[in-house]
Amino acid sequence: MIISIGSDHAGYMLRAALRDYLQKKGHQVLDRGASSSSEPYSYVQAGRMVAKDVSEGAAEKGIAICGTGIGISISCNKRLGIRCALCLNEFMAKMARRHNDANILAMGARVVGVSLAESITDSFLSATFDGGRHKERVDDIES
Ligand code: RB5
After folding, report:
1. Is residue 76 a contact partner of residue 50, using CB atoms and an 8 Å limit?
2. Domains annotated on the chain, with CATH
3. Does 66 qualify as catalytic in the annotation?
C-alpha cells in the first residue's frame, strides 16, 4: 500500500520510527513534513500535505502526527474527502475504519509511544469499512 506519513517537529521521531516500520512491512511511504525535531514546523502544513496525497489518490491512506495529534487532525479534516481520526488505542483505530471509513490516522507523539503507535497503525491498516448503514452516515458528512 502507498501510505503518506507527515508530521511537524513534535512528531518527527515517531514519524521516522513508523516510516521504517511500514517500509519493513513492504509498504511504500511518502514522507512529508518536518526534517528534524529541533526546527519548528507547522502541523498545519504537514497535515495539508498528507491530506492532499490522500484526496488526490497519490496515497491510499495517510498517517498524521503532531504533539497531541489534535492540530494535525484538524488540519487534515479541512480538506474535502478527508476523514482523519485521532486515535489513542487499537479499538479506536479499528472502529475509525469500520464505521467512519477514515482515510487518515492521526496520533500524538507526546501521547503514545512507538510500540503502541505501531499497534494502532496495524489496527487501522488491517480493518475495512463495514459499509451498510455506516455508508449513509459517511456520505452525509459531505452532503
Ligand atoms: C507543537 O508544540 C504542538 O503544538 C503541536 O505538535 C500539536 O500538539 C498541536 O496540536
Report:
1. yes
2. 2-142 (3.40.1400.10)
3. yes
Distance, CA of 102 to CA of 52 (rounded, Å) = 15
The atom of ligand 1 lying closest to the CA of 68 is 8
Cα–Cα distance for residue pair 44/59, rounded to 1 Å: 19
Ligand 1 centroid distance, CA of 86 (Å): 14
Name the residue with the closest Cα to ligand 1, atom 4. 67
Whether ligand 1 lies within 6 angstroms of the CB of 66 is answered as yes
Alpha-carbon distance of 67 to 57, in angstroms, equals: 26
Q: pLDDT by residue (tens digit) across 58-70?
A: 999 999 999 999 9
User: Is 27 assigned a catalytic role?
Assistant: no
69-110 pLDDT tens trace: 999 999 999 999 999 999 999 999 999 999 999 999 999 999
Q: How confident is the model at residue 19 (pLDDT cuts 50, 70, 90)?
A: very high
Q: How far apart are CA 81 and CA 84, in angstroms?
A: 10
